[in-house]
Amino acid sequence: MSDIAEEVGVRPSALYRHVDGKQQLLVRAVLGELRPFVELLDGVHAENADRVVVRLATMALEHRRLGVLWQREARNVTGQAREELKEALRRVASGLGDLTRACHAGLGAEDARFRGWCLFSTVTSPSYHRLDLPRADFEVLLTEMVRAIIERPVLASRSTANEAGAVSENVARHRVARRGLLLSAATRLFAERGYAAVTIEDIGAAVGITGPSVYSHFASKQDLLASVITRGEAWLEVELERTLAGAHDAVDALGALMRSYAGFVSEDSGFIDILVGEVDHLPGSERHRARQIQREYVTEWVALLREARPELDESAAGILVHAALTVANDMARTGSLRDIDAVVGVGRSLLFDVPARPCPDGPESSGATS
Q1: What is the pLDDT of residue 126?
Q2: pLDDT at position 18, please?
Q3: Distance CA 272, CA 333 (A)
Q4: H/E segment holding residue 245
């Protein structure tokens, strides 16, 4: 609270005249970012749907902090306040589902619900990067991204939540060594509670040992966090190499990467929670290394997309890649929406079906076919 007070030029005690504490201030901040979306989507219908789509893209840039506020900070809110935030989020997602049905006749309720959550992921994806375009171009690109999701063909069927993750997790509990058990337990606990709220004793208890015994395998809790992140990054790197080696061309490689990534985060969504929300708890050098690896991974996707679609400039390609990855990340966290085929389809639409803005040194294109 003292940092906030200093930023606005008042004493910390003055803030408490308006809020009870930091949690209430955070709740008000998140609700303040969500409320304009709730109001925009209230009562959407076929006659105003096109206007809402355009306005949605504008608001996504006006409220670019929303994604980070929700995923990194709102997870620390507890009790009734958390339920209030979740209800506001559900209202936004429900309104986005209504928007898809207003624009796309014939969508079923479940398909519309899924697309609504994908739209939320897409319009909040700029929160996770610093890529930019001229404002008008960025709004047009976001508008086309929204339309690409809305206009996808109707889903033929929808599988239930991926059961492979549960199976592999059960096998892992019995087949890996204690170090692996500790990594799995730490991943789950850090993802569920946040790094700061988890103790070494909690992690030890999760695998049936005392807290001090954990230090036989890891030097510190920070070391455990670094190992969790390194393990996930290693999987992504190996899968990237395997996919590139077996792909016929850039389009084939991106499609395969989208599927493997969606499958990985569906089975291990805790890793993504940690990568998005807990990297700042690493020491400086480790934090820099983790961020650098993330950037390099995304750079590979961007290079492939520009090879497949040379009409895209680097910023536009990066924005599309981040959106596709954010959809996969968010759908993995939403257990009832873990349909890999559907997530891959939306990712491909974002990568291949969004028209390119005119490139300074290339012709305008309507994109590739997914």
Answers
A1: 96
A2: 57
A3: 9
A4: helix 221-246
Residue 341, in any domain of the structure:
yes
Q: Give the total number of structural domains in the chain.
A: 2
User: pLDDT of 5-35, one tens digit each?
Assistant: 445 555 555 555 555 556 777 888 899 999 9
Predicted confidence (pLDDT) at residue 297 exceeds the cutoff of 60 = yes
Model confidence band, residue 356 (pLDDT cutoffs 50, 70, 90)? confident
Distance separating alpha carbons of residues 363 and 340, to the nearest angstrom: 34
Q: Which domain holds residue 138?
A: 2-150
Domain of 6, CATH number, reads: 1.10.357.10
Per the listing, tokens 């005249």 go with 17
Say yes or no: 260 and 334 in one domain. yes
Tens of pLDDT along 218-233?
Answer: 999 999 999 999 999 9
Q: Could you tell me which residues are beta bridge partners of residue 359?
A: 362
pLDDT at 268: 87
Domain stops at, among 120, 150, 180: 150
